[in-house]
From TrEMBL:
Keywords: NAD, Oxidoreductase. It comes from Salinicola rhizosphaerae. It comes from the Bacteria. Residues 2-159 form the 6-phosphogluconate dehydrogenase NADP-binding domain. Gene3D superfamilies: N-(1-d-carboxylethyl)-l-norvaline Dehydrogenase, domain 2, NAD(P)-binding Rossmann-like Domain. Residues 162-280 form the 3-hydroxyisobutyrate dehydrogenase-like NAD-binding domain. The keyword Zinc-finger does not apply. The keyword Oxidoreductase applies. This is 3-hydroxyisobutyrate dehydrogenase.
Amino acid sequence: MKITVIGLGQMGGNMALTLHSAGFDVTGTDVFESARQRLADQGLDVASPDALPASDIYLLSLPTSAHVREVIETRPGLLKTAAAGSVIIDTSTSDPVDSRELSAKVIAAGLEWLDAPVSGGPKGAASGKLGMLLGGETATIERVSPLLEAMSAKRTHVGGPGSGHVVKLANNYLCAANLVATAEAVALAAKAGVDPAACLAGLNSGSGRSAVSEINFPEWIVSGRFDSGFTTGLMRKDLRLARDAAANLDLDLALLTETVERWHADSDQPADTDDFNHIASPILALGSVPTHSNTMEDAS
């Protein structure tokens, strides 16, 4: 099973190394020579985007749907260059409208499609413990199951092409909303004299718990580390995609709209380049949260 990984950022690079370590024949490519060199220095075979080897699977890990479209339609133009029967797997968080359009073109060209957006960050990509949301045909999933099993701890097939990206946007919307809501809850408790760590322990023992309160807060926020590997700019992009998806379906989702506006209210706090968990910092400051409050402001 020959695999080409297109996009060697923190996620794509770590996925490529994980597959390589698992014994797969992997070549990586990226438009940036520095990214290719970084992975080559770690033992991965790399190639220029203009000189990709023939592969059974093309695994895409790219910032936006526009980049995915460019790879499929123009550079390297997988619709024309990939051999019949090859599988294109898009692990990016992409616009489901674009995904469904591109998947139809991919299938019409005699290729197979799978959208497989991931969660778990660079650490999950490096350890092969990602979560994956799969949109595509069951037969395609079965065909590439050895690759999926090497990359992920949990895989959920949610429907046909584009469905994985729909659910990924829903997931990221909830994560974004929970970051704001949990920060407000902790700030409320702190202002009333409750230690933030005690508040979080209480939340995590009750119905208000979430992955944000159980993982994000202790791992990246309370610790002051803010090094999850996912930026505010990427979360803002995903929220805009979720908003647009709702609009295309004529859905008036008030909380989604408010969440999008909240995340875009101040482009400097946090900045697009900051870790996305920094959205909690100014909220926690309102409650004069003592634990790592200064670190939170200085860690970006």
